[in-house]
Design brief:
alpha/beta, Nitrilase/N-carbamoyl-D-aminoacid amidohydrolase
Length: 289
């Protein structure tokens, strides 16, 4: 059994209304290509625009129950296809970088806000999310346990590890940055060490600071003959609606038999990971975090 994932690697329009129409058309294309779920790049509602002036930022932020999201809820039900729609979410004291997943009936199954915001850059004007969540997604021919990371979340092994421990089989990751060997390697590592599939949707070349290369790592590093490439799909830089299939049966067989993931964890040895007073060395200097 497989699940077909559509990567909506598309260029945004001028405003919220444009982005709804462009996104709607991309979802229709995804359905025509046989997709079970369509995933948008990061913060599609405003094309990852983050003005640093509070009033301008608040004008771009939208409520979770606004017409924009309700339109994608209705579209998911109409197309009988799950949709992961990303947006700048209105929230106090600061907005959130969020994604909502609607299943093929239009039911909301998962709402996640980016935990690891890029607070060293434009995202300093945002609040971070509170936790990582998983949900069962019924895609018609079966179900899959999904979770979400957003862009910078992938740089922290804990993000994917928590999702794996909560049962995630497929991590869906909206993105907005240049995808190069190091970031792609981080995604590969998250898939490998947790026995999960990781599907990342990026903006294409033409969007500032982005270059496409959306990917699907299927989380299965071995086959009978030996090691295999877990990257079963990588998009080019160009805009497009790209669809790739994840073989769930292969992934589940691997998860039952391999030694990675949680099988040989020693959590009693990891206390330092949750210690707020951890010290480390940066640039030869011993520092307190």
């Amino acid at each position: 059994m497989d699940i077909k994932i559509a990567f909506l690697q598309i260029l945004p329009g001028r405003d919220l209304e444009d982005n709804f129409e462009i996104g709607k058309n991309a979802c229709v294309q995804a359905k025509e290509k046989g997709a079970d779920i369509a995933l948008f790049p990061e913060m599609w509602s405003d094309a990852y625009a983050l003005p640093q002036e509070r009033e301008a930022l608040e004008r771009l932020a939208i409520e979770k129950d606004c017409d924009f999201l309700e339109g994608f809820r209705a579209l998911a039900a109409e197309l009988r296809m799950a949709i992961g729609i990303t947006f700048l979410e209105k929230h106090a004291p600061k907005p959130l970088n969020s994604v909502v997943f609607f299943d093929r009936t239009g039911r909301e199954v998962l709402h996640y806000s980016k935990v690891h915001t890029c607070a060293f850059d434009l995202e300093r004007v945002l609040d971070g999310g509170e936790d990582f969540y998983t949900a069962e997604l019924d895609f018609g021919r079966g179900t899959v346990k999904i979770g979400a990371m957003i862009c910078f979340d992938r740089e922290f092994p804990e993000s994917a590890r928590i999702l794996m421990l909560k049962g995630a089989e497929l991590i869906l990751a909206p993105n907005a940055c240049p995808m190069e060997i190091n970031r792609l390697s981080a995604l590969r590592a998250r898939a490998y060490e947790n026995m999960v599939a990781v599907a990342t949707c990026n903006y294409p070349a033409g969007q500032p600071d982005c270059n496409g290369r959306s990917t699907l790592f299927d989380g299965v590093p071995w086959q009978a003959e030996g090691a295999r490439d877990m990257c079963v799909f990588e998009a080019p830089e160009a805009p497009g609606v790209y669809v790739a299939a994840l073989e769930l049966d292969r992934l589940r067989t691997h998860r039952r038999g391999d030694v990675m993931g949680d099988k040989y964890r020693r959590p009693e040895k990891y206390g330092i990971l949750s210690d707020d007073a951890v010290c480390g060395v940066i640039g030869g200097e011993f520092v307190h975090w």
